[in-house]
Amino acid sequence: MRRVLIITYYWPPSGGSGVQRWLKMSKYLPENGWQPVIYTAEGAEYPVEDLSLEKDVAPEAEIVRYPIIEPYSFYKKFLGIKKDEKIKAGFINEGKKKSVWKENVSVWLRGNLFIPDARCWWIRPSVRFLKKYLEKNSVDAIISTGPPHSLHLIAKKLHKRFNIPWIADFRDPWTDIDFFSELKLTNRSLKKHHRLQHQVLTEANKVVTVGWDWAKGLESHGAKDVAVITNGYDFSIDEKSEEIELSKEFTMSHVGIVGAARNAVVFWEALGELIKDNSLDGFSKLLKIKLIGQVDNSVVESIKKNNLESNVDIIPYIPHEKVIKEQCSSQVLLLFVNNSPNAKGILTGKIFEYMASGRPILAIGPKDGDTAIILDKTQTGVIVDFYDKEEMKKTIIDLFNKFKENQLVTKKNESVEKYSRRALAKEYAQLIENIVETRQLYK
Questions:
Q1: Closest CA to 48 of 25, 21, 20
Q2: CATH superfamily assigned to domain 237-417
Q3: Is the pLDDT of residue 94 over 60?
Q4: What is the four-CA torsion angle of 55, 241, 230, 340, rounded to 10 degrees?
């Protein structure tokens, strides 16, 4: 069996979305002839932890850990955050009182001193450690997955030293990510980000990302012929649809982080107006919105402004196994695409689990983006533009009427099955194989 070194920061006990792609991909690589060698952090500070994910680690996987030093102790002390309090993913504002100048200074420090990200202190020690490891343990290929994009810089140095084929896997963009403009970068720092990004994109043997629009973006920064291998789902559609009972309420659930950029302001306004509409019999009593994951204070304020508090449950975090059950039992699944310049390319991992659950999806986002393409190909839901309130109301009413008539039924959809993690791992294994064989031809 050939061996592939996978350099990833997110690994169990980490929970959340960052861990899913390579935990699941590595789970099925062995049946395609590849043993995963996982290099990951020891002592990392993850925003959330989920010990239930340990069961998905492939028995064949070799796990190699190396201690990481993260700058969060200084960050917490500076902002007055308790030592045992978790740092939130992205830019989540919980509505707590903060010193504005301290917050601005911390963002400036984060953007300009830690390039490309807060894991940059892990690059040099990881390279030293892995050089010694690779001198004694051979691998046939290297995959680095980011963010954090520091991990690509580890792989770049190993690739240069050992001439091992290298794939740079982008779960999210680098300089095109939606919060990049918020980092308060100096011109010097901005140039450094772009220089490092260009080095990764041009020196890797292959660049892979999760969506077509982001592939174009990476190509515009120097990558050639970027491959798209999407995220996916990892459970039996038939088993879940049979064993889980649907909610008796008109439940609309969103799973994952809802940051400020995902605050669907017009959607909350549409719901608020529908609740006041007396002609929509039973709507206000039967409507139940579930937000499962970290929620920005701006979202909470929008909910309050539209008098929806009694209709909304905010559940900070539940294990991934239970999340799947929540998805399968919901009447409708909500998908909020970030309202940001890169919105067309955003294709969150949750959409594939949504599709596999068999429940209808209501997405709020660009109607000409990658999310719209997937929904159209699989016929698993509808997407409404960020600002089209009338279309939102019309769509919600239609879903509610079908719910009352028991017509929101679960159907097996064969077009969804190609997005299973097993099928995607087979596709990825073939890509690794092709790159290794191509390199051998030109030796």
A1: 20
A2: Glycogen Phosphorylase B; (3.40.50.2000)
A3: no
A4: -110
